[in-house]
Amino acid sequence: MENTNLDGWEEVADSNYWNPVIEGESVEGIITLVNKDDFGLKVTIESNGKAIVLPSHKVLQSRLQTCKVGDMIKVIFEKKELPKIKGHNPTNIYKVLTKKV
Residue 68: which CATH number? Predict the structure, then answer.
């Protein structure tokens, strides 16, 4: 059953979560927030005036360990590597570059 009375409601916009699917895709910006929780590092960068949350993939988290708030970074999605154990998910491989600003 569809409710057509939407007075006072606003649609929630897509989050700015970066989820690359094509090899070679990249994003760059300045790290504005680094949070560590039960799932590992959660890094947010500012790029072209927008806050973008990077994925919490293990390889990417490992490469971001030495980065800190204020660093300019470029993250490149290199490929998906097939799992070594049948039934496991592929591993997303990233390259992380830093630049002095």
Answer: 2.40.50
**Residue 15 within any structural domain of the chain:** no
Output the tens digit of pLDDT for each of the chain's 101 residues. Answer: 466 778 888 877 667 889 999 999 999 999 999 998 887 888 999 999 999 999 999 999 999 999 999 999 999 999 999 988 888 889 999 999 999 87
- In this prediction the pTM is 0.81
Burial grade of 57 (CB within 10 A; 0-12, 13-18, 19 or more): middle
Number of domains making up the chain: 1
Cα–Cα–Cα angle for 19, 92, 30, rounded to 5 degrees: 55
| CB contact at 8 A, 51 and 44 | yes
